[in-house]
Design goal:
Length: 331
């Protein structure tokens, strides 16, 4: 066994979203899409339902610890209704779910400006983002400002997929590991879209990293170099649509950025030390400084594999109060 295999097993047993949850996402997408296109107000407007965010980028991870949650963004592509303002799309979609017997107690719109949330029982919710087609482009509907906001989720995914190729196929697991560190250690709480974008920005066309740990160490080092240039949170532009930035995803206070900056610096030092080690046992010990006693997974002699949960029910009456999800469903 080598350190690459140790990382692969750790991802498989501890970090990656398990098949039961993936199946549940696919079933929810199918059922929710059918519900929307069968509603009177939407049957002539509905075009398609497209996954967005971490699920589409394949960087979604298993919930960490008791009370951990995961969410899925679904972009609801619609034809334009000339009689509706942006807020009408959001309000009408929410009303369709709230007025149904099945979803009445599962529908949550509080605090959400761009989506309607369906909160299933357990650790799972779906954010439905209505988006209007106009002249070949799509615009999400901000109910707070009653304005359309151009989106290019397809372009972002294409950029990220190219960076994944450039990384030698290691960027996706690296981002998953960064999100696991965020959720398990709680040293910083940067939103996924910013963390993913900054990590992706550090990949060069010629990288082709030899392994996950090599790539993780390189990206952490480059993230440290990048973040150390700034005293406060920098603007993070959408690589696929430079006219849009992700500033709204930074925490409002400077502490959010300073925590990320300090934490990435510390993580970069640990990973640089770990990657210089050729002996497997010693490398595992050094990587444990970063990932904790759960690394490697239990089957390889490490701590207990996290997040072992029973299968989730398909639906339920419990509404989970949660912070807004990414990338679109936050204020």
């Amino acid at each position: 066994m080598d350190i690459q295999t140790v990382f692969e097993n750790f991802l498989d047993k501890v970090v990656n979203l398990n098949k039961g949850r993936v199946d549940r996402i696919e079933e929810a997408q199918r059922i929710l899409s059918e519900f929307i296109q069968n509603q009177e107000d939407f049957k002539d407007l509905y075009i398609d339902t497209i996954p967005q965010g971490s699920y589409r980028q394949k960087t979604i991870i298993k919930p960490v610890g008791n009370g951990g949650t995961f969410d899925v963004d679904l972009l609801i592509k619609l034809k334009e209704n000339p009689d509706w303002t942006p807020a009408n799309y959001h309000a009408t979609l929410a009303a369709a779910f709230k007025e149904s017997g099945l979803y009445e107690d599962l529908t949550d719109t509080e605090g959400k400006t761009r989506c309607v949330t369906i909160d299933y029982e357990g650790d799972f919710h779906v954010d439905l983002v209505p988006a209007v087609e106009r002249n070949g482009k799509y615009y999400v509907c901000n109910k707070a400002t009653d304005e359309f906001e151009e989106t290019d989720g397809d372009g972002y995914v294409q950029w990220f997929e190219q960076q994944e190729v450039n990384s030698g196929g290691h960027l996706v697991p690296i981002v998953r590991l960064l999100k696991y560190l965020r959720d398990s250690k709680k040293d910083f709480d940067t939103k996924s879209i910013i963390l993913t974008t900054i990590a992706g920005m550090q990949v060069n066309a010629s990288d082709n990293f030899a392994s996950i740990p090599d790539g993780l160490s390189a990206i952490l080092g480059r993230m440290n170099d990048y973040l150390s240039q700034f005293e406060s949170a920098p603007p993070i532009l959408n690589p696929a649509m430079p006219g849009e930035n992700f500033d709204r995803h930074w925490k409002n206070d400077s502490k959010g950025f300073s925590n990320l900056k300090a934490t990435i610096s510390a993580y970069a030092d640990i990973s640089s030390d770990a990657i210089s080690t050729t002996e497997l046992d010693e490398a595992v010990n050094r990587w444990q400084e970063l990932f904790g006693d759960g690394f490697p997974s239990e089957d390889e002699g490490g701590g207990k594999s996290a997040n072992q949960r029973p299968p989730l029910p398909s639906t339920g009456p419990v509404i989970v109060n949660r912070p807004p999800a990414q990338p679109w469903c936050n204020v």
